[in-house]
Input
Amino acid sequence: MTYITNYQYYTNGGVIPTDVNHGEYQYVSLADIVNNFMLMYVGNDKLVNNVDRYAILFHAKRAIQELNYDALRNIKVIEQEMGDQLKMVMPPDYVNYVRISVLSGNVLFPLTENRQPISAVGYLQDNNLDILFDQTGEILTGDSRVDILRQEKTLYMGGGAYNGCHGYNYNGDWYFGYRMGGRYGLDTAEANNNPRFSINKASGVIDFSSGIENKHIVLEYVSDGMENGDDSKITINKMAEEYLYNYIKFALLNNKTGVQEYIVNRARKDKTATLRNAKIRLSNLHPSRLLMSLRGRDKWIK
Output
């Protein structure tokens, strides 16, 4: 970020939006990273020479991605109301989820992941149960019975403990999700009364079990920091700036012929050491915060 006056920082010079500069000083842009590396690390008297700008840009992006996966953990949060399809399309910059919760009664309840499939691709079959194909030889697909069943929850009004609950009616018998399978041999990892979800990476959607329709889902996920391909918006925290330079230097030397092995190893050690330092700095470990956690040792447990 370019040095600006306090007036520009707080008010953006009176231009709307006025908060565009708030907190920006703690970050350095991708363009500055590439320019600084070419000025300070590339030259005839440097270890790195005769390198193209696009190569530096590529390795800088890879370094930012690896840092987001491993150290930065900048969590993005979105909220969406679920329809009767029980599916949420993954955000365009989604890499992995951190937590998925449902908003109920002004309280966020975390959902557990279902390790069993709750969505499938339905193959069309004839009366002899043979798979049907189109003119090009591809399998014809249709609605999945799995998807249909998890959307067919009906309201039980037969009295008793389950009166007014949603369940499944099969051959005249009623079944309720959290009681199906019996109590004995219960998998404690899935012992949760809330609906569950399953990640469908191939389709780019998150499937939910029934009972989630018309409710608000809060998705917390990790991005790769590439800002949907807009290089002008890519930034990195200044505490990890040195790691990016060492990562780029190592990547260039490691892929270049005629470089002595001890030079590559030294660059690798520099990259590893600065990554460790960046993790420590970005972890925000302060003595006062640690002290507050340790005070819990004196808590009486009744």
